[in-house]
Amino acid sequence: MKTPFQILTAVAVASAATASFAAYPEKAITIVVPFAAGGPTDKVARDLAEVLRKNLNNQTVLIENVGGAGGTLGAAKVAKANPDGYTFLLHHIGMATAPALYRNLPYKVLDDFEYLGMVNDVPMTLIGRPSLPANTYPELVKWLEANRGKINLANAGLGAASHLCGLLFQQSLKIDMTTVPYKGTAPAMTDILGSQVDIMCDQTTNTSGQIEAGKVKAYAVTTLQPLSTPALSRLPTLDSQGLKGFNVSIWHGLYAPKGTPKAVVDQVNAALRNALKDPEFIKRQEALGAVVVTDGRLSPVEHKKFVEAEIAKWGPAIKAAGQYAD
Length: 326
Ligand code: ASP
What we know:
The chain folds into 2 domains: 27-122 and 250-321, D-Maltodextrin-Binding Protein, domain 2 (3-Layer(aba) Sandwich); 123-241, D-Maltodextrin-Binding Protein, domain 2 (3-Layer(aba) Sandwich). The longest helix has 22 residues, at 300-321. It is built from 11 helices and 10 strands. Helix 2 crosses helix 9 (262-275) and helix 4 (94-101) packs across helix 11. It is of the alpha/beta class. Strands 1, 2, 3, 4, 5, 6, 7, 8, 9 and 10 form a 10-stranded mixed sheet that branches. Aspartic acid binds at residues 35-36, 39-42, 92, 94, 155-156, 160-162, 184-186, 202-203, 206. The site of aspartic acid has 19 residues, from helix 2, helix 6, helix 7 and strand 7.
């Protein structure tokens, strides 16, 4: 049986914990983006940081770009970070594809993170350098066939969304391309614009502005349905162009290191739910071709289940393609 002193101490400790979390957040929060600044994941994170701040007592939300190795360096950094509620990770589908791609992934996707809720779904687009002679998807296919062995495909490294999309595209066409990895698709886009690399499959959040401005060649979208975003609605789906069933739509979610206090997880999840209702945020995402999550995946439990299902969905396709890293 507990002595009155032990009971009083336990009550004091519990209320100190409540008091400290009631005041959360007391200092700046950092969201790690596992890709270069200025790219699609970074853009989502910076927009999200702004609306999250408003829902977290106006506390500063900083972005730290930790690009490299297809997003796995940034994810590893957060997996090992102090679980004190001040370090988060915003990551995309790479969270679910990395386990199949890396033999020695330095973190366990389902064990080393707290799931905070999902943010958006984002289609992808197939684009090319402005100097590429092909103007339409059928012309692109002819050009790719005529240039076998000489084609460069930009991506953000093994495990990136651009890697997954490019891998499936090469497999579907049965044309091997030389992949050129970058720390994110922002620097890859610079080289597409400068015609240093030929093609890339990247999120609409990075490509729609360049497509609209006519600065890159745009060939197709990767979803089963055409997109309604004005800049992208003229593009055919890969599915309608002979690549039956081609369907790659990526998503972003928010994570914390495993062991982050439940009170913080709940508070950040509530802040995220509110942030995603912000009309400006929704409008901005829509203009870039992204769709803000409003379904059950907003809950940490459903978010984790979704990632688990995505691991099961993409693992076999990736393994069949036989591309691995240590
Ligand atoms: N779009 C990148 C990817 O291919 C990531 C980024 O730069 O945000 O995964």
